[in-house]
Design a protein that fits this description.
It is globular and about 40 Å long. The protein is built from five helices and two strands; from the N terminus they run βαααααβ. The longest helix is centred in the last third of the chain and has 11 residues. By secondary structure, it is mainly α. It has a two-stranded antiparallel ribbon with strand order 1-2. The protein has one domain: 434 Repressor (Amino-terminal Domain) (Orthogonal Bundle), CATH 1.10.260.40. It is about 55% helix and about 10% strand.
C-alpha cells in the first residue's frame, strides 16, 4: 500500500510556488520539499490542515491511496 502526496499537483492547480506556500503555512522549504517529493514518512494533521487552508482544498486533494498489491 502507498499513500501518495499530490502537493505538486495542487500547487500547479492553484498556480502557487512552494516558497509562497512555505510563507503562508509557516513550514520550512525543506520540509515542504520532502512532502512534495513523496519522501515523508508522516504528516501532522495540523500541517495538513494549514496546507489545505492555504491551498483552499480538501485533504483528499493532496493525499491519495494506491494499493500496490494488484493481485486482488
Amino acid at each position: 500500500m502507498s499513500v501518495i502526496i499530490n502537493l505538486d499537483v495542487m500547487l500547479a492547480k492553484r498556480k502557487m510556488r512552494l516558497t509562497t506556500l512555505s510563507e503562508k503555512v509557516g513550514i520550512t522549504m525543506s520540509n515542504l520539499s520532502i512532502l512534495k517529493q513523496g519522501k515523508a514518512k508522516a504528516i501532522k494533521l495540523s500541517t495538513l490542515n494549514a496546507i489545505c487552508k492555504a491551498l483552499d482544498c480538501q485533504p483528499g486533494d493532496i493525499l491519495e491511496y494506491k494499493d500496490d498489491d494488484k493481485s486482488g
